[in-house]
Amino acid sequence: MTRVAAGLRGTAKRAQVDTLIVAIAFGTSNIGAYLLNVIAPRLLSQAQWGEFGSLLAILVVGAVPALGLQTFAALRVAKLRTGETTSTHLRDLPQRDLGQLFTMALTASAAVTGLLIAATPLLMMLLHFSTPWPTLCVAVALTGVTCNGIFLGMLQGAQRFGALARLIIIDGLGRTGAALVGLLVFGTPTGALGTMVVGTLLVATTGWLMCGRPPLVKRQPGHVSEVFHAGQALLGLVLLVNLDLILARHHLPPDAGGEYAVGWVMTRMAYWLPYAMAVVALPRLADAEQRRRVVPITLGFCAGLNALVVLVAVVFGSDIVTLIGGGGYAASTLPLWAFALVGSLLSLVQILLYSRIASADRRSTVLVWVAVGIEIALVTVWLHDSLLEIVTAAVATTAGLVLTSALIELRHSLLSRHGNFAIPQTPRL
């Protein structure tokens, strides 16, 4: 018993260290993104900044398949480690299996890039672009971004969190760092995105090298549905993170919409702050026994951190609003704690969603899209007359989603523990 307790303490300590390493990497990467959003408006005209901001939004949406690939690869590699070896070195795993992941990455990259190239004329018309080159640059940049999702997932699944942290930082340099260089050198959106293309392709090449140069192997057609399942679930979550801001811009006057955008920055901060916990926990969710232990522990730590974030927003709300939005918002009565609560609840949803993806439970992930529909209906039909009403709709929707997802997770855990429920396992590569 003492040996088991010592082992659990050692595992918890390693998880804390891994979480800290990954959190530092994400923080470093996000600094670059913040600098890009601060520097770009000062180097570009208002029209150019509007164009560049729209293109960056397309890049964010286009990167969702990379998140799906990363999640899929992390779970696949974690299962391979359980079945073949406990080594964290990818070279000790079957190269044919890793090669299939690499082939899938190239296939998905080609599909994402081809889809955006095909949509370029429509995007030019809808977003009033005068030339196709910026959109085409985004399309090619997504080749590297999508492909690198698999490499991030391989390192994550192998629990090589030090290497994962390095690749996260390199990825940030390749995207935002390269775009900043392009802005400074060329002073145009096309120049920035052109250098980003070079940066993202170099990042993908670096990821391939860090993962031991996996070979090209014929992929299994059935795995596409698994990647699609993870991708659509994460797409719903990304949409839910951004949905209330979109609805606020549609229903509120411009000034109120701008004030809501200030609060939404707090939502994103609260959502991303515990993200490293989810990254470190995901590989352990591939095993049903570990999942029953890891999910409650991770949720507990995440909830504790989120409670601190909400408390800070309650106490220092007005000061934080001024810090985010500037002196023009000094007299704002924005309920910042409500925005922090939305982001905090969404971070809990993310952990529960990862657990359901890991258990191949396709029905439960539909809940995210149900929540999207409910929030749209609440705001469109009823709660849209003020900023407070819209953020209330967001809080109610996300709270309901957390509660429902937690009950489903508890039910699956209890049934599997008593042997009355066989959690479906995803077939091996």
From TrEMBL:
Coiled coil: none annotated. It is found in: Cell membrane. It is a multi-pass membrane protein. Signal peptide: none annotated. The chain crosses the membrane at residues 20-40, 52-75, 101-127, 133-155, 167-186, 192-211, 223-241, 261-282, 294-316, 336-354, 366-384, 390-408. Keywords: Cell membrane, Membrane, Transmembrane, Transmembrane helix. This is Lipopolysaccharide biosynthesis protein.
